[in-house]
């Protein structure tokens, strides 16, 4: 409605309206001139946002359908004490949103409160009526009628506005990747919390499994982004698995994280999927050293600890004698290790493909520091953007899919007989690849998350 248009709009004491910005296409409202403030039935009301105060809440738009729940979010414009018709006072969050009635649409302030026992889950107060709405107390539905059937429409669900998500980043470190995930998520209006994985603990039971943190039960998150360090893989995957049990969408699931960290099992999975990799051998008995080396080929060889990360615990043995010495040394330490063929033509370079949501979104070539065959950026290597082939792209996507990872860093070697997967990283760092490619990887990850976690109605389970 505009200030210049003085046409009076007649409304009855009961009308249909919609709140399009909240994704509520049909609500039956009571028009009450005795109430100053408008009110919307809401529960599970959660404020969030450090620089931009917002609120998430659940709405049951149909009084007779408690199983149909719509998740909404909006900016907080105020928090004020409201006295209801029965004389009870309550502090309520106040939001501003557009209301549509017939062909007219205008902004109103709405307070959020639990109206479960009320016949109308929306009350339109006199502040929202303004000067142009004339109430006919004895009439009903003077404006066009709507229908609750719209909530069953797929088109309506697809057109629903993006709601704020409550997101947990499981991380013990305040590093570049964690900060970027928080920064980008909050820029998009989501609530992002950093949760120290080691400070979580679990209640495991059949009826109400929970995750606790610093003495309190954690709220229900829409999304968990695991950034599990290698030193706490076992506990980190247990926590991730608990979130999965609660029905939370985990960008990388516990099984994918655990299998990608177990280098022996990871290579077995890649072999099962017929994905190219350097020839690899593994044995437990010291009597098999010679045969182990023979299975891989001739020197030079790579001897790699199963627990190695960021290039640590990876040794290049340039001769057979050197390989035997390294293997004997590792066995003396009772360490588990793999022996791999050294791909000479890679010349100390590998390609990191960043796979998000089943597609390669960025790729960089990493080159080792002078005299170092390892190309890890943590060990002084350098990186630059690279154009990859369709075959390399397909191999990277297949590798990430093999582990069921929503985000993965797939490291490839360019060999004379095609790309070979060196490793699949379930917690890839963002700094190196964002710097090398100039791409906003954190934003691309949120694109994938928002596509996956859509604002569709939640139907509660019926209880006996």
| Uncertain regions spanning at least 5 consecutive residues | 455-464
The major sheet is characterized as:
10 strands, mixed
CATH topology category name of the domain at 9-158? Cathepsin D, subunit A, domain 1
Share of helical residues: 10-25%
* CATH class (first level) name of the domain at 9-158: Mainly Beta
User: Per DSSP, what share of the residues sits in E-state strands of 2 or more residues?
Assistant: 25-35%
Radius of gyration of CA atoms, rounded to a whole number: 29 Å
The helix-and-strand class reads alpha+beta
Structural shape: elongated
Total beta-strand segments = 28
Straight-line distance between termini: 48 Å
**Average residue-wise pLDDT:** 86
Separate helix tally: 11
Per CATH, the architecture of the domain at 9-158 is: Beta Barrel
Mind telling me the CATH superfamily name of the domain at 9-158? Acid Proteases
Q: What's this model, at a glance?
A:
Strands 2, 3, 4, 5, 6, 7, 8, 9, 10 and 28 form a ten-stranded mixed β-sheet that branches.
Give a written overview of the molecule:
The protein is of the alpha+beta class and 464 residues long. Among the domains are: 9-158, Cathepsin D, subunit A, domain 1; 166-259, Rossmann fold (3-Layer(aba) Sandwich), CATH 3.40.50; 281-342, 2-Layer Sandwich (Dna Ligase, domain 1). The protein contains eleven helices and 28 strands. Helix 4 (233-245) runs antiparallel to helix 5 (254-261). The longest helix is centred in the middle third of the chain and has 13 residues, at 233-245. Mean pLDDT is 86; it is low at 455-464. Its cofactor is Mg(2+); Mn(2+).
